[in-house]
Amino acid sequence: MARSIDPVVHAVRGFVPARTDEERFLMRHIEDLARTAQSRGIARYSGFLSDREQELARAALGRAGLEEGFRFDGGWSEAERRILCLEPEYSYPENPICCVELQGRAQAGAVLPAHKDYLGSLMGLELRREALGDIVLPADTPGTAYVFALETAGELICRELLQVGRTEVTTTLLSLDEMPEFPQAERKTQTATVSSLRLDAVLAAMLHCSRGQACEWIAAGRVEINHLPAESAHAPVYEGDVFTVRGKGRFGLTALPGKSKKDRSIIEFFQY
Questions:
Q1: Are 154 and 98 a contacting pair, CB within 8 Å?
Q2: CA 105 to CA 142: how far, in whole Å?
């Protein structure tokens, strides 16, 4: 196994500025929430944010001069989609997240709904995406799904959602205190060595393919870094980056431990 012989350098990706009008609007909205919370001493909350939007929110908070008094919460420990909670000292926090338990009653031999089926049915209720957090399908309870949502969206789901795909569902509104413990996803960390910490080299190691093939996927627009299109095969990678390759999967770069004895860079990663 490769062994680090160099000091570990914890390189991190710098802030990627807003690219669209929607992202610029989000940052202004976060700044407004932060200033209101600071000036009036009251708790303020955003809608659910993707991990990309969470990074933009952190940048907006920095621009507003806010370094503490906030957190991100998705309703459970491994949440990907989270709300920004701005809770100044002496304020009265009221977490707006709830959870809807969906119990499916599929006919014998029918295929149970998948994540995309639940999301499609929820969006069919004309809910805004920021009103919805994670959709969790525990492996130990087939046919059961848990939808994290803002309270008003959770109430609407309980009133209106009767079916997901061809499966009838019953709904129960839960507070976060009533949530069951979800089994933690088992993610096997893998180790590889690469000639350089460039995107094409790292993707080739993760996907067990040639660098040429990795370059083709990048050029075809199939690769994203932290949910943004990768523009160059030569792009540097950083600890904590998330790589999405359409048709191949999503990978998280967890650590850059250093160099091997053969002076190759060591990477540690897992596949979602």
A1: yes
A2: 10
